[in-house]
Here is the input.
Amino acid sequence: METLIRNARVVMTMNDTDDAPQNTDILVRDGVIAALGQGLATTGDVIDASDCVVTPGLVNTHHHLYQTLTRAVPGGQDALLFGWLKTLYPIWSRFGPEEMYISAQIGLAELALSGCTLSSDHLYLYPNGARLDDTIAAAREVGLRFHPTRGAMSIGESAGGLPPDALVEAEQAILEDCIRVIDAFHDPSEGAMVRVGVAPCSPFSVSRELMRDAAILARDKGVMLHTHLAENDEDIAYSEAQFGCRPGQYAEELGWVGDDVWHAHCVKLDRAEIDLFARTRTGVAHCPCSNCRLGSGIAPVRAMRDAGVPVGLGVDGSASNDAGSLIGEARQTMLLQRVVNGADAMSAREALRIATRGGAEVLGRHDVGQITVGKRADIAMWDVSGIESAGSWDVAALLLAGPQQVRHLMVEGREIVRDGHLVTFDLAQAIVRQNTLARRLAG
Ligand SMILES: [Zn+2]
Here is the structure.
């Protein structure tokens, strides 16, 4: 099967030499980029991209898709992390399989419209029969490449943890279900549409033993590890009080560093922790809007990148953002680093590179994240003929003054968004169901 993307105004390839050819065609065959150049021909479909800046699909490295059902909950709107969690836990405990499925569909659709072709997800609570399988079914329907992680919480309130006892699971059951979902869904091969990871929720909601056993299990199975780390000052204080060390040391002691590990947030990493992450190639999911929303601080992304830490972007759960726009996160990344380090601290091009190839590398995907012959055809096409781009001189306008949504989006050579609309499933119907479920949860 072939598709020709014809006459793209600019292709920001994100290849090793950062080429950005103009008036260029991209030939896609059987899900792979087959050729790049001018005057290419096809017998298949043609997409006119003469009004478009074309980029690799954006990669989302941190999300809790289920939270799209709890956006803008009044009691959590203005709270810090721990207070925010305590407001939302009782609501989440009423979720079940249908809530997980619909909320994932909505979250992934929102990501697709904002240019995302590959998303991870961190699902760490399984009330009322909910399973990781529910979100994988949703991703298949939407058509995005998907890296769900089997999250978990095991220390409830009665044992000194933060979550209510009803939302925690026995550690043995957690490990057994990790094995089940890896065996059922994880695909290590090139071009994989689903890869599963192991992801205890955070050091403050599981035991030291589960952190250690999860790392052993993930390495045994050849899958990646993910959790939250060093999110804000409360998080650091908790680590020092409970474990007698900083989060980076805790992670290192339990096997949670390496190129098969990525941590969300890392707002409060200190110099030694940044060096540790760089040395071990441990990845970071930077979630700038969530960090702003919860007042957590500004992650030292400039220092991380300069040291060689792999950094990708995440929208984070929609209860703490509350939007799910990945192109918006790229813009916010650029702006926040400038707040701290000055106007030349991060260019629009660098932020886009973090959003695409950076995220792909954090997720261990070397087959996506760039528009290069032989890589998978995950491609976003941004219409720059609209009002927000009128008068723009340069492709940096994609972040400085660009469209908020894609015109076309392709995953593995398959069209997901065409002319600004999702074509894989009935989004309008899903929105109606989502709102019905949200009203039911609100009682
Ligand atoms: Zn998170």
